[in-house]
Design goal:
single chain, alpha/beta, 5 helices
Length: about 170
């Protein structure tokens, strides 16, 4: 049973997997690891695409505890600090081609993460937003990604998955 506060809706998980595969992502950044369910879907997509890694960032020092052992080699967990503190060092070494924003869901939090990530994204990168139902998340995405086209995944997930595709 899907519980809004502690897991990834199955339809959203399948969408994360499919989008990651279809975009041919190899360097995935995720904010908001929590238990690691969404991280697992992304890591599985990379494994089935013959390569890549997920760099995932969460304030909780125990984040990611449900990532299955078989996918852990595809995941770099950054825990215990806000994403805005731990991402810059990684971004100096890695160019993301898929970004999944799922940590803070207030305007300032989403903007802060996007200000770090957007200048470093690979051309054609896909941005995904969980909790796209939240007006502040949608507004921050629109403000920071003016050349992107936005879509909302139609699913049973009440939190909605927003998909942003660079149209420039």
């Amino acid at each position: 049973c899907f519980a809004r506060s502690n897991t990834t809706h199955p339809e959203t998980g399948r969408a994360l997997y499919a989008i990651c595969r279809a975009s041919q992502a190899r360097h995935v950044f995720e904010t908001g690891t929590y238990w690691g369910y969404s991280t697992t879907y992304l890591a599985a997509a990379l494994e089935h695409s013959d390569g890549g890694r997920v760099w995932t960032f969460d304030l909780n020092p125990k984040a990611g505890k449900h990532i299955p052992r078989r996918y852990r080699s595809r995941v770099e967990l950054h825990r215990g600090k806000p994403s805005t503190e731990s991402m810059p060092e990684v971004l100096r070494q890695v160019t993301p081609d898929l970004f999944f924003q799922d940590s803070r869901h207030d305007y300032d939090g989403v903007v802060a993460e996007l200000r770090l990530v957007v200048p470093c994204l690979k051309p054609g990168a896909v941005c995904l937003f969980h909790d796209f139902v939240v007006p502040d998340v949608r507004r921050a995405a629109a403000d920071l990604l003016p050349r992107y086209t936005f879509h909302i995944l139609e699913s049973g997930d009440p939190q909605q998955l927003g998909v942003a595709i660079n149209t420039a």
